[in-house]
């Protein structure tokens, strides 16, 4: 590229990173101060029957077989929100069996019947928007406004696939020999293992479960151990919507054990995963032995480029959104900002100013535009980058 670009790391990004990390540290250092609203929020979720702490296997809420639990913490305060079942290979094996058994009935329903159940699930997600958003803010940290946006976004996948359920068409292909007929029939593949990350506790699940259920597959979901509560609440609403026991199972806890069980099972026919490249590679390799289909959404690498002729206000607003959505914890968050020479100084000072005006805090507070990072390890990682 002939034009001179400067990597914002030289000036702006250092300030920006420093601002964002110290902001996150500020939230981390407010741990144990508690949040005035958290108790009321939990009460609201509990009253709606959406505070689930056990896994879901074959339509039943079950504890870990050895009774183990893991803590789910509020990253804004460090408070323990709940202790959830810490499951492993035995519970996963049972969840797979239940999904496999249900596959034979769920896949035999008409597309219209599956569509109706999914539509109802969508409607229930939307009518519990506030409780789901509160739960998400409590366990993941994102500001309520972003959490409410995620419920809309997450539910939209169920709505979309409820509609698409009726449009899984086959095809007729012109044959190369006159006495042959070539038909494409689309059929559900079987049990799907869905492993999801913590940054979008609802949407990553609905985006995987929606299409699987729509076409007649059954699912074993393993949400992140940092954010299982939203997943369990969504699964509760799926049951209420009439999605049959065993069609959607949720296990969480010991990730490698659960992953290995899903990998080695001959009943699991597909793995869908969003997360790190390192884990994705393991899952891909582990799926080879049983020749599973694999869909992976890994890592992220997202440069943001600002050219000389950019409108500064638009560029700052856009870059801010790209860099700081979910406190910089999405796979498409800008990880470097390249600015053309002519606009660099102006952009850098406007951007730094904009970053300094971001309001860091507990996502339950209305003024907060930046919630905490997910955990202490993420804060440390940010500090390393700043050094
Ligand atoms: P991130 O860095 O975004 O947290 P991870 O890949 O570590 O991404 O986590 C994404 C999901 O993968 C989480 O649900 C996590 O528990 C799960 N996971 C982590 N390690 C394994 C593993 N060995 N097998 C299966 N799932 C795993």
From TrEMBL:
GO biological process: gamma-aminobutyric acid catabolic process
InterPro entries: Ald_DH/histidinol_DH (IPR016161), Ald_DH_C (IPR016163), Ald_DH_CS_CYS (IPR016160), Ald_DH_CS_GLU (IPR029510), Ald_DH_N (IPR016162), Aldehyde_DH_dom (IPR015590), Aldehyde_DH_Superfamily (IPR050740)
Entry EC no(s): 1.2.1.24
Pfam families per UniProt: Aldedh (PF00171)
Keywords per UniProt: Oxidoreductase
A GO term for molecular function: succinate-semialdehyde dehydrogenase (NAD+) activity
Domain Aldehyde dehydrogenase residues, every copy: 61-384
Active site: 297
PROSITE patterns membership: ALDEHYDE_DEHYDR_CYS (PS00070), ALDEHYDE_DEHYDR_GLU (PS00687)
Family of the protein in this entry: Belongs to the aldehyde dehydrogenase family.
Name of the protein: Succinate-semialdehyde dehydrogenase, mitochondrial
Organism: Aegilops tauschii subsp. strangulata (Goatgrass)
């Amino acid at each position: 590229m002939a034009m001179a670009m400067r990597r914002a790391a030289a000036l702006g990004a250092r300030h920006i990173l420093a601002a964002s990390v110290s902001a996150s540290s500020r939230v981390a250092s407010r741990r144990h101060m508690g949040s005035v609203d958290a108790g009321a929020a939990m009460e609201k979720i509990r009253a709606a029957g959406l505070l689930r702490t056990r896994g879901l296997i074959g339509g039943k809420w079950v504890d870990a077989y050895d009774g183990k639990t893991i803590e789910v913490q509020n990253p804004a305060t460090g408070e323990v929100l709940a202790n959830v079942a810490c499951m492993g290979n035995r519970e996963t094996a049972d969840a797979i069996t239940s999904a496999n058994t249900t596959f034979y009935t769920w896949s035999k329903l008409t597309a219209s019947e599956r569509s109706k159940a999914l539509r109802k699930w969508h409607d229930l997600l939307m009518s519990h928007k506030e409780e789901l958003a509160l739960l998400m803010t409590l366990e993941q940290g994102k500001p309520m406004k972003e959490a409410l946006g995620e419920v809309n976004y997450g539910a939209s996948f169920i709505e979309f696939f409820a509609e698409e359920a009726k449009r899984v068409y086959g095809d007729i292909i012109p044959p190369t020999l006159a006495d042959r007929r070539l038909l494409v029939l689309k059929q559900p593949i079987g049990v799907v293992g869905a492993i999801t990350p913590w940054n979008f506790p609802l949407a990553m699940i609905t985006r995987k479960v929606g299409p699987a259920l729509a076409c007649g597959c059954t699912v074993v979901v393993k949400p992140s151990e940092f954010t299982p509560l939203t997943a369990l609440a969504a699964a509760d609403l799926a049951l209420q919507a009439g999605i049959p026991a065993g069609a959607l199972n949720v296990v969480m806890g010991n990730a490698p054990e659960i992953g290995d069980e899903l990998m080695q099972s001959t009943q699991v026919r597909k793995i869908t995963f969003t997360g790190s490249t390192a884990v994705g590679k393991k899952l891909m390799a582990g799926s080879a032995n049983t020749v599973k289909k694999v869909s992976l959404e890994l890592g992220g690498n997202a440069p943001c480029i600002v050219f000389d002729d950019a409108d500064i206000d638009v560029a700052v607003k856009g870059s801010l959104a790209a860099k700081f959505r979910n406190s910089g914890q999405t796979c498409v968050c800008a990880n470097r900002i390249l600015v053309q020479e002519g606009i660099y100084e102006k952009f850098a000072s406007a951007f730094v100013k904009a970053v300094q005006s971001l309001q860091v805090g507990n996502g339950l507070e209305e003024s907060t535009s930046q919630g905490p990072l997910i955990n202490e390890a993420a804060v440390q990682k940010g500090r390393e980058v700043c050094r």
